[in-house]
Design brief:
Layout: H1 5-14, H2 16-32, E1 40-45, H3 48-51, E2 60-66, E3 82-85, E4 97-103, H4 112-122, E5 123-134, H5 156-165, E6 168-176, H6 185-189, H7 191-200, E7 209-216
Amino acid sequence: MHLDVQDLRNFYYRNALGRSAQASMRRRLLELWPEAKGQTVAGFGFAAPLLRPYLADARRVIALMPGPQGVMPWPPEGQNVAVLTEETLWPLETGHVDKLIILHGLETSDRAYDLLEEAWRVLGPGGKALFIVPNRAGLWSRRDRTPFGYGRPYSAGQLETQLRKHQFLPERHVGALYQFPSSRRIWMKSAAMFEKVGRTMPGMIAGGAFMVEASKLIYPPKGKVVRSKALRQKVPQGVTAPVAGFITGDPQG
């Protein structure tokens, strides 16, 4: 079950712990993908906090937000790139995406099998996907005061096994969120120290999230997915409406 977009927005943009978590994941992301010049970058779930570094140089940035979660206009400045979409029927051409980030999308989905097939479909040859999920061994998955306390947490092995079943090749994985999942002053003051120790000696502290980078294999996923007609969603005022069919060209919203 997806979380509500308002709760996610409040956590990442209006909560000190959420802003710290955003910084931790973004730092790790940029270690893996320092740039995306001239590329199409998409995010699914609530990946907006991690898409910002690519807004300036990417050919296109698209924030896909599933219907059960809801959508918000993003970024708050400039043209809107967020779109409300059916969870397993994205308004993107096959093979259109160079980089894909899934955050708060896989572990909360009731249709993870179809979701992974849709992710495989939109990636182009040589495309990379980054799957970010709660670590079942970490403290964050045990506290429902953060978004990482909802849905199904994974171990690294479980996630990589699931990705291989859907014709993804896991290549690298890193941990994130080594700080204690609390907004109390004593834990916030020590957050930088825990993050540094976790990044340099990951065996000492279990991170709150796994970030697994995977490439698209050339063979299509096993099984068949029946592609239904796109859902018609009501979009809040001020947000670009989903495009009927597939998105192409430069963003208009």
